Every structure is written in C-alpha cells, then in structure tokens.
Amino acid sequence: MINEVVENFRSLESREFRVLRAIERGMRDYDFPPVSFIANIANLPEDETRYRISRLNKFELVERKKIGEDRFRLNFNGYDSLALKKLVDSDTIDSIGGEAGRGKESDVQLAKKNDQEVIIKFHREGKVNFRKIKKMRDYLEDREHYSWMFVSNLAAKNEYKTLKNIYKKLDVPIPFDWDRHAIVMEKVPGNELIKTKLTKKDADFVFDYLIEEVKKAYSLGYIHADLSEYNVMVSEERISLIDWPQSVTLDHPNHESLLKRDITNLCNYFNRKYKLEKEPKHYIKKIKDIN
C-alpha cells in the first residue's frame, strides 16, 4: 500500500495538499468534515475544492460519506502523503525508494538523505491497537474519529524524542526528523534476533551486551517497555535496539513492572533457545545499580 502512496504522491498538486491539510484540520471537530468547511479552511472556491477532492478520492487518500451533504476524511494514505510532503519540503529526504518492511504497528519505506540510505517509519498504532486508544479516551473526549491519527502521531513523537535523547550513548537508530506519524531514521544493518542463529557462547555475549544497553538507557532515565527478540537487530558489526514508541521515563508509575517485563522477556528467550540460565531478578538489580 505504501508504494502506491509514494507513486500517487508524485502526481499531487500543491492545492491538493492544501485540501488534505484542510481535511486534517477539520477532523479535529468532525468525524467527516463537510466540503463547505474544507473549502473555507483551504481558502478555495467550493467547486475547485470538490474537484481537488475528486482527485484525492481517485488516489484513495480520503474516505467519503454522505450525511445530508458530501463529507470526507483522511485515511492513512492521505496522512502518509502529508507527512511525506513535509519531510521532502524540509529537505530531510532527497528521494523515496521501495518498501523495506511491514509490521503490525508500522510500515517502513526506504529513502535517501544526502546520498545516505535511511528509512521512513510510518506508525500505524491507531489503526490496530484499540487498547491504546481506550487508554487515551479521557483526553480524546468525543473525538474518537480523530484517535487513530492522534495515537499514531503520539507514538512517533515519543519514539523520536526517546531516540534523540539516547542515541549518542546507546546503539539505536539515529533519528533525523519526524512529522506527524512518520520518523526518518538510520537504516540499521542486520537481522532481527529471532531470525539470527548464534552459538551458545555468542548468545551469552549478546545477552550481556543487551543488559548493558538496557542499563545505559536506565541511567539516562528511559525504559524500552516492549523489549523482545523481535526488536533487537544483530549483524557482524552491531547489536542494536529498535522500536521505541512505547518507551517510558523513570517517572512513569509502572516503570518498574515494565523494566521487569523487558528483562524477563530477554531471559526467557535466551534460556529457552540457547539453554542459558539467566535469572531476571539478578539482572534487574544490576541495571538499577547505576553507581
């Protein structure tokens, strides 16, 4: 799907981006903003607004609903297009490549930044994780139609902020920029830990290395909060911790239980797959002893 967004992105005109932004603004107040409202925000005649929306609809960037009059809202394709536009206009990326991967809560696209290969990570939390939306219901009040954008934006913002604060001390992807639900970051080499075959000796080394990285993050005031064999990248040169959108700081009320879960996940994986004998309590104590 993201490849089609990139292809259609090149065909969009400046006034169509203006209409997309107007629809985005309208979604703060409406489930499906009416055309009259969109035209007013975009500062375009209503007939031209309808023409621009017809093109956006053809490119599958908006959804239509008739409630007395025609109304439209963004879908993830439209939101992707707005984020790409901002990242291109700010010279964060020079060109956009093919799809690099697709996960449960994100899509990843290749791109170039000053001839360096990078990735754009598009967060999709609001599309698939209704538990997170439910947690934020008090904040969203009656704007649940807006929640998928809000949750995805919040996840990207949290991940970018965390990476920005820890990347100089830990082996994590270098973050370059973010907009809305999309982050431009370093393309980390290697394969997921779950897909990597290690000797027992190497597994012991990797485990100890990860504990030291978690300890560094803790000393900086952060806990990954979703650590597992699926978000560790292993190559000949590096062992990197990726996927930080759920990270929390040490003032989070559940930070201790989240740290315990992270370390228990690591111990269980290495004990199960490599027959190691790692005790979570020992390593939690070691991580918290930051003197």
Automatic annotation (TrEMBL):
GO terms for cellular component: cytosol; preribosome, small subunit precursor. PROSITE patterns: PROTEIN_KINASE_DOM, RIO1. It catalyses: L-seryl-[protein] + ATP = O-phospho-L-seryl-[protein] + ADP + H(+); L-threonyl-[protein] + ATP = O-phospho-L-threonyl-[protein] + ADP + H(+). Residues 94-291 form the Protein kinase domain. This is non-specific serine/threonine protein kinase. GO terms for biological process: maturation of SSU-rRNA. Keywords: ATP-binding, Kinase, Magnesium, Metal-binding, Nucleotide-binding, Serine/threonine-protein kinase, Transferase. Its EC number is 2.7.11.1. Belongs to the protein kinase superfamily. RIO-type Ser/Thr kinase family. It comes from Methanohalarchaeum thermophilum. It is an enzyme of class 2 (transferase). The keyword ATP-binding applies. Pfam families: RIO1, Rio2_N. Gene3D superfamilies: Phosphorylase Kinase, domain 1, Transferase(Phosphotransferase) domain 1, Winged helix-like DNA-binding domain superfamily/Winged helix DNA-binding domain. Its cofactor is Mg(2+). GO terms for molecular function: ATP binding; metal ion binding; protein serine/threonine kinase activity.
